[in-house]
Specification:
mainly alpha, single chain, disordered N terminus, about 400 residues, about 80% helix
């Protein structure tokens, strides 16, 4: 019986890599807003559901830590995948008839957010268990899985739109199957048992955050919100309005992912050769131009530039800006005086603040979209982002000048 189980380190690592790649096959995500739109539940409800998923994903981290007291990381990852599948299944069940069940849709987003958090936050713990504290091996597997996860997300998003064109429910069924298959990859993994400590874990000390750290934490949260709130909630709606073929819908939105990935790949080289200030300026420029292009779509159309081409260029630039936000933040966020536990707390707070900022922009953006227009929405976002960029530039110059004087 034991011989049938894959217990070697190499087999475990291959199973883990397979899990990470398959679990990122989000066939349904690029067409989720389109699916809700065809269900005719209204834009306010759509935005509410999208924001609820994001908030649940952020604030359900405590559930993971509690489950890990009783279950292994392998079991917790599998549970997360099954809960994800259940949430996606509820989306289909709640829209199976002409009468849409909003309570079930709410439950589906709650389950989806919890399942996503359980799987995503625990797979790193499982990998640490598999590598038995070997940091070099841990980072090698982390790096090896990045490209596979990116390709999986990109291909699944494009195929999701093709499946949607044949049957709107097929991308969701495919995503459910991928979650079940992903859990199947985790099942045979044999992780070494960890020696549990009899001593109770010490309470975390009160985290003291410096002013410069707080600023860059907020920069990360707000900047990411200005990329993902439009991408999640409003740009798909815009492509629906300009009659993008559903067959191309996922492929078009995947341009954002591709551009973001390319930005991440070149960010380190840009910082090394030209300095972090250059990348910060490029991030602000690309983001501002992107939002401005979306706001100017109607005017550009009057000048003979098709809506589709201007919005596609804007989407690529928005993806680039999204990809450079984390490298810029980490290059400026000085954590050298913080312990490993404090760093994890800071990163957790950054994600929490991002989720709150994202929900705020989604809620207010939905009001602008319904009461005004998409042009007014993007113009407002563009002006607000210019203000954020200006404040960031002033702080960066002030902080750089202070550091230069202190080093003299």
């Amino acid at each position: 019986m034991n011989a049938c189980r894959l217990s070697t380190g190499t087999a475990n690592q291959r199973l883990f890599l397979g899990y990470r790649i398959i679990s990122r096959c989000y066939f349904h995500l690029p067409v989720l807003l389109l699916y809700f739109w065809t269900a005719e539940i209204g834009m306010y409800r759509i935005i509410f559901l999208l924001a609820l998923y994001g908030l649940t994903s952020t604030f359900s981290g405590s559930i993971t830590s509690r489950l890990l007291r009783y279950y292994s990381p392998r079991q917790t990852v599998m549970l997360g995948e099954f809960i994800k599948a259940l949430g996606i299944g509820l989306v289909l069940w709640s829209t199976r008839q002409s009468e849409v069940s909003l309570p079930l849709l709410v439950l589906s987003q709650l389950l989806g957010g919890v399942g996503f958090t359980l799987a995503l936050t625990t797979d790193a713990a499982l990998l640490r268990q598999l590598t038995a504290g070997n940091q070099q091996q841990f980072m090698q597997i982390q790096t090896a899985s990045q490209s596979g996860m990116f390709i999986a997300t990109l291909v699944a998003g494009s195929l999701g739109s093709v499946l949607f064109d044949y049957n709107p429910q097929w991308p969701f069924i495919a995503a459910i199957l991928m979650s079940v298959i992903a859990a199947g990859f985790v099942l045979p993994i044999v992780a070494p048992k960890e020696v549990s400590s009899a001593e109770p874990s010490a309470a975390l000390p009160t985290l003291m955050i410096r002013a410069d750290q707080r600023f860059w934490m907020l920069f990360y949260a707000v900047s990411r919100a200005f990329t993902l709130a439009p991408f999640i909630g409003f740009i798909p709606f815009y492509f629906i309005m300009i009659n993008v073929d559903p067959l191309l819908f996922g492929a078009v939105l995947s341009c954002f992912t591709l551009s973001s990935w390319l930005a991440i790949r070149i960010a380190g080289g840009v910082i090394t050769r030209y300095g972090v200030a250059t990348l910060l300026a490029a991030t602000s420029l690309f983001m501002t131009v992107s939002l401005g292009l979306f706001a100017s779509g109607e005017w550009l159309s009057d000048q003979g530039i098709d809506y589709f081409f201007s919005s596609l260029l804007a989407l690529v630039m928005l993806g680039f800006g999204s990809g450079t936000i984390r490298p810029v933040t980490l290059a400026n966020l000085d954590l050298s005086a913080n312990t490993a536990a404090e760093r994890m707390q800071i990163f957790s707070l950054m994600e929490r603040d991002f989720s709150l900022a994202n929900a705020f922009l989604l809620a207010n953006g939905a009001w602008l979209l319904i009461t005004k227009s998409f042009t007014d929405l993007m113009l407002t976002f563009c002006v607000l982002y210019i203000i954020v960029s200006g404040i960031s530039a002033l702080f960066y110059v002030k902080h750089s000048t202070r550091n230069a004087h202190s080093s003299i």
